[in-house]
Amino acid sequence: MIFITAKFRIKPEYADQWPEISREFTEATRGEVGCLWFDWSRSLDDPTEYVLVEAFKDDDAGAAHVQSAHFKAAQEKLPPHLAETPRIVNFSVPQEGWSELGEMAVR
């Protein structure tokens, strides 16, 4: 799978509205056949920072995502609300989902 984590720093005046601003893109991406997950979290230390954790089944699914109409629309709609270019970590992982964190196993 392709595992991606991206940090988005939002302009302060839009930070509280970011979930709604990004909703259409989020819902469309979650509806993609190859999308395994697409989840936003807000930083506890910086209220203007959102972290996106996303995964796609394979390279083809990742390519379909960035070539989709909703991705192209997001490229136009989202940047005016950003304080800086998002930062990203993107890598392929030889698994199909989340693994358990054995060191903190619930017993």
Main features:
Alpha-Beta Plaits; oxidoreductase; 107 residues; globular; Quinol monooxygenase; monooxygenase activity; four-stranded antiparallel beta sheet; Dimeric_a/b-barrel; alpha+beta; 4 strands; single chain; monooxygenase
Task: Provide an overview of this structure.
This protein has helices at residues 18-21, 23-30, 59-67, 69-77, and strands spanning 2-9, 35-42, 49-56, 87-92. By secondary structure, the protein is α+β, with helices and mostly antiparallel strands. The protein has a single domain (2-89), classed as Alpha-Beta Plaits (2-Layer Sandwich). The protein has a four-stranded antiparallel β-sheet with strand order 2-3-1-4. The radius of gyration is 15 Å and the shape is globular. The protein starts with a strand and ends in a 15-residue tail after the last strand. The model has no long low-confidence stretch (mean pLDDT 97).
